[in-house]
Structures are given as structure tokens and as C-alpha cells.
Design a protein that fits this description.
The protein contains 13 helices and ten strands. With about 325 residues, the protein is α/β, with parallel strands linked by helices. The chain folds into two domains: about 5-90 and about 155-335, Aldolase class I (TIM Barrel), CATH 3.20.20.70; about 90-150, Alpha-Beta Plaits, CATH 3.30.70.20. Bound molecules: iron/sulfur cluster (2 copies). One iron/sulfur cluster binds next to helix 5. One iron/sulfur cluster binds near residues 108 and 141.
Amino acid sequence: MGRYEQLRQLFNETRCFKLVCGAGNEDVEEVRRLSTIYTIAGTHVLDLSANVDVVNAAKRGIEIAYEKASLLGKDIQIRPYLNVSIGIKGDPHVAKAKIDLELCTECGECIKACSEREAISDDFIVNDSRCIGCGDCGRSCSFGAIEYYYKKADFEKILPECVAAGTETMELHAITLDDEGTRNDWKLLNKLIPGNYVSMCLDRTFLSNKHLIERVKEAYEITGERMIVQADGDPMSGGGDDFNITLQTVACADIVIKSEIPVMIFLSGGTNSKTGLLAKQCKVGAHGVAIGSYARKIVKKYVTNEEFDNNLDILKEAVMVAEQLVKSNIEAISGSS
Ligand code: SF4
Ligand code: SF4
């Protein structure tokens, strides 16, 4: 079976899991370690920033996973698909924070707000490669000292390089009102990935339900059965783990399903250990679950451990934690729990 058919089968069996490393996450060391943990834990897709160094880090992480899986008594069923994500202008997934030191009073609130990502240094400089544009620092600043900028990349150049490095699927974050920008970038992705899935990530921050469905319909006319909709609820929600955080995810997926456009659907954005269960209880039949903030958060203490590469017990514990998240979601949406 080819790689496209294999992924199609996973979707048809409604048991696809995607680890979202982060469209703006260019921390190659973190991506490598996350890729190792979640490959052994059974993820089927790794969602990455469109950056060749990040793609190579994920590949290295997968290689290490294959080297170490047998030592942990694990069998990797499917080699994860590498997906890169890009965002059109205005998409927070690809925004970066910048601190205006003229306005900054050095109160430190932004550093506390960013403690999860540790992207702001003690001298109030933002580390671009760690910043994922979540906006938490801006909300914490009472002095208007933080602004966000769109890190424009030359996709025509970078994306073919990502394909050459092993990227198999691509995703466009298309949450803003810019229909023309969405259309152009969508056509580019379809040109670059003619034989596998292309995904459109959508949420209802700016788009009405009607606008969202019109966008899916137009994109489906170009892509057909190779199209995935990543239905985001509350993107970059910070990794909380309750039903309310994941509620909008399930609602967004429900709207796409009710449109009857036959796309594959990932639940995403505000996903956690409760997502699959909530979807099941609401009878929202998604094909897969994609988890970012929460999936990264639960293994953070292992990923940041200096002994990660040398101590198999650290990897073993991390895999146990990750495996639980993967299994519980897949079992819930596939109806096997
Ligand atoms: S919260 Fe605002 S004022 Fe306070 S340290 Fe951060 S940027 Fe400076
Ligand atoms: S809080 Fe979010 S947006 Fe601000 S620096 Fe940290 S990762 Fe970037």
C-alpha cells in the first residue's frame, strides 16, 4: 500500500493522530525530542514549521525512535508523515512577539505569562525560534510594550525544499478573512503536493460559519478527496485539560460535517485528553485528532531534561505519558473504547 492509501485508510478507520509541534516552533532540539517520544507513542503525523532545519530535526527524531523503540519493547506501526504548516498574513500561528524596550517597564509579567515556552529572556528579548505567537505575553502587558509581526517567508522557495527534505503533506492556516491570499496559497500547496493530502486549518475567530463553509467548498473543488479540514476551536489555548476548552473544537468540526462536503476532518485547536470523548458523546464523527499545546505540555519535563538523550528511563516515562493521550483519543473517536 502506498503512503497516500495508508493515510487514507487511517482516516477511514477514524483513528489518525497528529502531534502538532507548532507552525511557529523553530526550536529544532525540542522538535527532535518530541518527534522521538510521539513516534514511539504511536502518532501518525508530525505537524511542523515550514523550515528545512525543523523537518530534518523531526526526521532525526524519528530515526532515534526506531533505534530506541525495541529497547523499550515497543513496535512502531506506521512511520509518521511529515506535514509542514504555513499561515497567511494575520494568522497568529505564524506571528512572533516583539518587545519595545522604550515602553517596557521591566515588570516581568510577560516572562511569567510565557513560562511554558520560555521564549522571553531576562533582558526582555524574544527568542524567535521559541515564540509560537500565542499572544499570552501581550495580554499580560499593561504598558502596550508588546506587538506582533508576521514573519513573512518565501514559500515558493522554502516549501519545495521542505518537500525535498521529506515533507509528505502540507497545511495552510487560513483563519483570516483574506479570501484571495487563501486561494493563492492553497493553489501553491496543491501544486507542491499533487499525490497526498493537503489540509486547511480553519476556525471561527474571524470567519462566520457561512464564510467558513464557502471557503471549504471552494478549496474542495481544487483538491477533491485529498482534502483535510483541520477544525480548530480555541487555537493555542495554553494546554488546559477540560471539556470546556475543547468544546469549540468539536463545534467547529460539527459545522463542517453538517455541510456534507466529503473532506477528512481533524479535531484541533484546544484539543486535550477530553477531545475524543467529547466528540464521541456529541456524535461528531471526526477522522482524526491533532493535539499541540497539551501534548507538548505533558511531556515538557522530559523534553527539557538534560539527560534525555542518555537516559532511557526518561524516554520510557515520556512515551508512557504520550501513549495514554494518543490511545485515549483514538479509541474514543474510532469507537473502540
Ligand atoms: S509585561 Fe510589558 S512592561 Fe512588563 S516586562 Fe513585559 S513587555 Fe515589559
Ligand atoms: S507568550 Fe507566546 S507570543 Fe509571547 S513570547 Fe511567549 S510564545 Fe511568544
